[in-house]
Design goal:
heterodimer; A: alpha/beta; FAD/NAD(P)-binding domain; D-Amino Acid Oxidase, Chain A, domain 2; 2 domains; eight-stranded mixed sheet; 18 strands; globular; B: alpha+beta; Folate-binding fold; four-stranded antiparallel sheet; two-stranded antiparallel ribbon; 2 helices; 18% helix; binds flavin-adenine dinucleotide
């Protein structure tokens, strides 16, 4: 069924009895052309573009829990393409362009809202760095505006401008940045893939790979063996644990990142605002909750929950940037597991094992990448060549000294 | 998390700075024939286990000792804490 305003009216008049399920719940077949491991945003987008753009019919997505139960349903929903380095910026801008057409493309309301992303600066040096970043963005054809303190004050008069320690000197604004309803991204891609013949198999964990003579023949799952000509792994925070089953060690550590939502409040925050003097960022959901977060906890974790020191740190950042946040009540907080790579940038590449492909290392910024990541991984799986915007995301960049280190932190994943 | 420091007793993990996998103690020999490969492994590749993990913590806001902490990455439970210098010495290192 095609979703439309007409359908909403028609179903309303017939008691909403005709909607039907959005995707099937098929039994796994014994064999597929391509098996995608991981039913997060990236895995589902990959399957969708494989079916839509590369006409690969026999594709399955294997998910150990339920789709949307991982980071795609745990993130703070920010999308942006305000990167500096050449390896990154064209890719993230490609993703932004795909976001802009996504809802029409997959016929699902993902609430893509380009409400602007504003990064604040508090020192002259920081402003210089933002000017450089803005120029880098513009050279790649991306929108970027530098605001002075007055410009910021117009957008967000409630911020703490005159803090003696961290006065707000201005900001870098990407007007096309914004937020997207994260669960709807998983659901939209799932429905779009399913309607094009992809089997989405939930409650099915990949527990091993069948590898003979350096070739991957298929995956061992909790629901039996599934053969596949090609296997693409997109399991985000579980990358290390899953690829270890294929005998691989990755340039990745798993870390926990927490997020927080307040009670619903009247509209106050116009877009996404990030603090430049502490680790804190905030936006307001359409339901009115303040959605905010900060730093990763900083130690290896697969626990999907964080600890109190970072909660305190995030709240301190919030109080310092917008003291009125102290009056809001916190409703919920949770954690998700990040695949933190050694240079803070992702990997979309073949492995040394024939027929086995890998997509990961998204750190805490992979939600915005979902459409481009899916398209580029589908491109690689279908054609065995990297997509033009993802040629830098190779495994061997670490060996060759071609790191894409946006933050200039070196091989210290908990600092990216 | 509370880290039971071998010399100072239980301390809040906030007093510490985290470095990563304890294998970072075993810096390769830069003169080895395959030093390039060894350093690639050492710098960039990680076991990243879901389960027991031996890792380096630095008591920055305390006695400045390096510790090897064995912690379960699925539960955050800490099962043993050793001085990193004892661990290194047991491996035959001089310091
Ligand atoms: C708190 C938080 C805030 C964030 N905020 C942002 C943000 O504002 N903007 C942004 O761009 N990014 C953000 N991110 C990062 C972003 O969410 C992730 O980078 C991205 O979602 C990862 O890709 P994914 O959606 O495919 O991951 P996931 O949804 O985690 O998908 C991976 C899937 O693989 C499955 N899986 C794992 N092991 C197996 C197995 N053995 N067999 C089968 N299936 C398996 C998991 O169950 C999971 O469903 C945030 C993350 C967190 C946790």
């Amino acid at each position: 069924m095609r979703y439309s305003g007409f359908q909403v009216l028609k179903q309303a008049l017939s008691g909403h009895k005709g909607w039907g399920r959005a995707w099937r719940d098929p039994e796994p077949q014994s064999q597929y052309d391509i098996v995608i491991v991981g039913g997060g945003g990236h895995g589902l987008a990959t399957a969708y573009y494989l079916a839509r753009s590369f006409a690969k019919a026999r594709v399955a997505v294997i998910e150990k829990g339920w789709i949307g139960g991982g980071n795609v349903g745990r993130n703070t929903t920010i999308i942006r393409s305000n990167y500096l380095l050449d390896g990154n910026e064209p890719f993230y801008e490609y993703s932004m362009k795909l976001w802009e057409g996504l809802e029409q493309d997959f016929n699902f309301n993902a609430m893509v809202s380009q409400r602007g992303v504003l990064n604040l600066c508090h020192t002259d040096a920081q402003r210089d760095a933002f000017r450089r970043r803005a120029n880098g963005m513009r050279l790649n054809g991306v929108d970027a505006e530098l605001l002075d303190a007055e410009g910021v004050r117009k957008m967000a008069p409630f911020l703490n401008f005159d803090s003696a320690r961290f006065p707000i000197k201005g900001g870098l604004l990407q007007p096309r940045g914004g937020t997207v309803r994260h669960d709807a991204v998983a659901w939209g891609y799932a429905r779009g893939a399913d309607s094009r013949g992809v089997d989405i198999i939930q409650n099915c964990e990949v527990v091993g790979f069948r590898i003979e003579n350096g070739i991957c023949l298929g995956v061992e799952t909790t629901r039996g063996y599934i053969a596949a000509a090609k296997v693409g792994v997109a399991v985000a925070g579980s990358s290390g644990a899953v690829m270890a089953k294929a005998g691989m060690r990755l340039p990745i550590e798993s870390h926990v990142l927490q997020a927080f939502v307040s009670e619903g409040l009247k509209p106050i925050i116009p877009g996404v605002i990030t603090y430049g003097a502490g680790h804190f960022y905030v936006s307001q959901s359409d339901k009115g909750g303040l959605v905010f977060g900060g730093d990763i906890d900083g130690y290896n974790s697969y626990a999907q929950r964080g600890n109190l020191p970072v909660v305190e740190d995030v709240c301190e950042g919030g109080m310092s940037l917008m003291p009125m946040i102290g009056r809001a009540k916190l409703l919920r907080m949770w954690g998700g597991i990040m695949d933190m790579s050694m240079d803070g940038s992702p990997i979309i590449d073949k492995t040394d094992i024939g027929g086995l492909y890998f997509n990961g290392g998204w750190c805490y910024g992979g939600f915005k990448a979902t459409p481009a990541s899916g398209m580029c991984f589908a491109h690689l799986l279908a054609t065995d060549t990297p997509h033009p915007t993802a040629t830098a995301y190779r495994f061997d960049r670490f060996r060759k000294g071609l790191m894409i280190d946006e933050k200039g932190m070196g091989a210290q994943p908990n600092l990216h | 998390m509370i880290i039971n420091h071998p010399l100072l007793g239980p301390r809040d993990s906030q007093e510490f700075t985290y470095l990563g996998d304890a294998s970072l103690i075993e810096r390769p020999d830069w003169q080895a024939a395959d030093a390039v490969d060894q350093f690639y492994d050492y710098l960039y590749l990680r076991d990243n286990p879901a389960g027991l993990h031996r890792e380096l913590w630095y008591h920055e806001q305390g006695d400045r000792s390096w510790l090897v902490v064995t912690r379960n990455t699925l539960t955050h439970d800490i099962t043993s804490v050793e001085l990193a210098r004892d661990v290194a010495k047991a491996k035959g290192r001089s310091t």
